[in-house]
# Entry
Amino acid sequence: MKFYQEITSQAIQLFEPDPDAIYTLEVAERLAHVPRRRIVVYYKHGLVSPVADPAYGGFYFNDEGIRMLRRIEHLYSVCGINLAGVKMIITLMNEAERLRTEARFLRAR
Amino acid sequence: MPVEFKDYYAILDVPRTATDQDIKKSFRKLARKFHPDVAKDKKTAEEKFKEINEAYEVLSDPEKRKKYDQYGASWKEGGGFQPPPGWQSGAGRGAEGAQTQEFHFGGTGFSDFFEQLFGRSRHGGFGFGGRGFEADEATQPRGPARGYDIEGDILVTLEEAMRGSVRSISLQRANPRTGQTETLTFKVRIPVGVQEGQTIRVPGKGGDGASGGASGDLFLHVLYAAHPDFRARGPDLHYELELAPWEAVLGTTVSVPTLDGPVKVRIPASTNNGRQLRVRGHGLPKGRDGERGDLYVIVNVQLPAQLTDEERELWERLSRVSRFNPRQPAST
# Structure
């Protein structure tokens, strides 16, 4: 048993990200380090979309959602941009991302 | 830290004046040769394949190529690579007094050189040293400050997206307290069916938190590596099939490569150039439940460059006999 532990302590860590993992509002609050009240505010402004519709009792986020929450949080509280501005920036960034992917696809012809 | 310069032109074996077509051709040739599924010596071939892909990623994009030509050429004079002005401008923003953070990636399929020259602006905008301590204190007066997040791109081959794989990632960063560089090495499993644009979150591998706060996370942004045969669009794959004019007119059956081996595709008679034929279920996995995208075969009719006398005679005969006129479709 001890031998086994020694090996694992030296072995390189392996992360197995679970793409299907979803987090509750409480876990999302802890992971994204955003107070849950603010998450709800972001949701009301249409900035984050939980995987399940809150109208049916679910307020769950996946890893994309966590990343989005952090982006918003960064723009909102570190860069000091108001929510309307954050919304515009996020929309533009998504658009740029989409166009970049499209350009890459078309260029490969 | 000077970053080792990589001559992308030498890697792709093209002159600096090469056209986009030349680059593409050379990439396809080399990528086929060094494709990890084909080559005998898997280990070196894989390295080479990633290198080729990185070079192609830069040289196939006119904007990146311009940037590379501009800054990448100065490496000879300076000895080490001189970072272009402003390449690190994003780092350390968000809080005055926060240390400038430097990260060097390994194992993502992009070299440090690539990461530094083409590192996305969001590295600066989001978390790349942006979550400084001062800023956090201002917004959250009490409680420990969370570490910042690090974002990076990872090149994933289509085969890896199909079957999943384990990648070894190394992350070099300066310890803010001691100023020494430390290297973190860990493995990340690429999940089956990962899609372009998805992010893989590696918890706790971002910057360290302050006063007992949790560490930030590492976000790896998935980019599909260019494949010599296929182009990916979401879960669908596009394959360009080159046909002779008579094959397109008369119809034929051809063998088309897929990720699971060749399949036979029937080309119907009078298939027009650019027509898309769908081979259901031969694309990339849509998730882990086994559902898959489609393979689109796009017809690309090629004309013979040189004609023998006999061929010329036959074409001339055809032009006399045929009443087909594409410019006047209604009146015959």
Notes: Chain B has three domains: 1-84, 86-226, 230-306. Chain B touches chain A at residues 24, 60-61, 94-95, 122, 125-127, 130-132, 135-136, 139, 146, 149, 166, 168, 185-189, 191, 193-194, 196-203, 214, 219, 226, 231-233, 240, 287-288 (CB under 8 Å). DSSP finds eleven helices and twelve strands in chain B.
